[in-house]
């Protein structure tokens, strides 16, 4: 299972869309995710810690995460969002390695949602104050009445194959020897296939064909949807975009297998990254 997938919560849109029904769940049975900013508290079993509505200030903005065995689950919006790259926070890497998969998925959704609210307290249309609505799945402007919705940014992450070898790259600022699949945001007016082709051409200088979808993964830093794809290229003559990439190379199947086993010519992506699963998928084809 991909990290951040498989949440056990029922998102219960029929509840969050009905203010009276949602209010009925805000009782002593309701649970509130214990967060320090956007970092969750863990118990002795490395599971998420939950409190009650009595543990948060009366004026706190609460996001309704969903129902867990009939109990409503909430998370409070923190004072500030988190603009720090995940690589700069070792605590996040530790969390991803220790939280059980279902808790990690739940935390990922809560993190993305509450972080978005912390960043959108003012209207993008008129600059007026916004207030939480629809249980946290919307914000409404108090001045112009515009509605704003939590965003998810699509990112293509793609394997590029040439005659049985796999193209991988090392981004600027990455540790020496660490390679992964190329990736980039889908731009307005693009299909997934067009975004794959453009990003590969921009970063590596080759044209791809036969783009196919493999898998996807929510990535809450802050709110991407990683769309894993596979493609082919008829050329291995690279023109590297040195403003984004430090290295781009082709690796044989044996080299990729060795790297995935921890004994190869490069350091493979960690297991919680979709790139790791894409490379394992490619090996097994």
UniProtKB/TrEMBL annotation:
Its EC number is 3.6.1.22. PROSITE patterns: NUDIX, NUDIX_BOX. Belongs to the Nudix hydrolase family. NudC subfamily. GO terms for cellular component: cytosol. It is an enzyme of class 3 (hydrolase). GO terms for molecular function: metal ion binding; NADH pyrophosphatase activity. Gene3D superfamilies: 3.90.79.20, Nucleoside Triphosphate Pyrophosphohydrolase (3.90.79.10). This is NAD(+) diphosphatase. The gene is nudC.
């Amino acid at each position: 299972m991909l990290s951040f997938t498989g949440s056990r919560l029922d998102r219960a849109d029929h509840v969050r869309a009905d203010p009276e029904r949602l209010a009925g769940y805000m009782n002593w049975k309701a649970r509130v995710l214990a967060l320090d900013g956007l970092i969750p508290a863990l118990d002795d079993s490395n599971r998420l810690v939950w409190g009650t509505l009595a543990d948060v200030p009366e004026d706190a903005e609460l996001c309704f995460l969903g129902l867990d065995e009939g109990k409503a689950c909430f998370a409070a919006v923190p004072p500030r969002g988190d603009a720090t790259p995940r690589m700069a926070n070792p605590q996040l890497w530790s969390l991803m390695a220790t939280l059980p998969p279902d808790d990690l998925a739940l935390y990922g959704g809560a993190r993305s949602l509450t972080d978005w609210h912390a960043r959108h307290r003012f209207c993008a249309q008129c600059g007026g104050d916004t207030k939480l609505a629809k249980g946290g799945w919307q914000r409404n402007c108090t001045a112009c009445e515009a509605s704003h919705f939590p965003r998810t940014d699509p990112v293509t992450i793609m394997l590029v194959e040439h005659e049985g070898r796999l193209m991988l790259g090392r981004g600027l600022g990455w540790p020496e020897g660490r390679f992964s699949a190329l990736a980039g945001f889908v731009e307005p007016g693009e299909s997934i296939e067009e975004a794959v082709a453009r990003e590969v051409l921009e970063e590596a200088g080759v044209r791809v064909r036969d783009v196919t979808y493999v898998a996807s993964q929510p990535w809450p830093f802050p709110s991407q949807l990683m769309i894993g794809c596979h493609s082919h290229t008829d050329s291995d003559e690279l023109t590297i975009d040195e403003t984004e990439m430090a290295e781009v190379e082709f690796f044989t199947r044996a080299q990729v297998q060795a790297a995935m086993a921890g004994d190869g010519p490069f350091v493979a992506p960690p297991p919680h990254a979709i790139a790791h699963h894409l490379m394992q998928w490619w090996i097994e084809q």
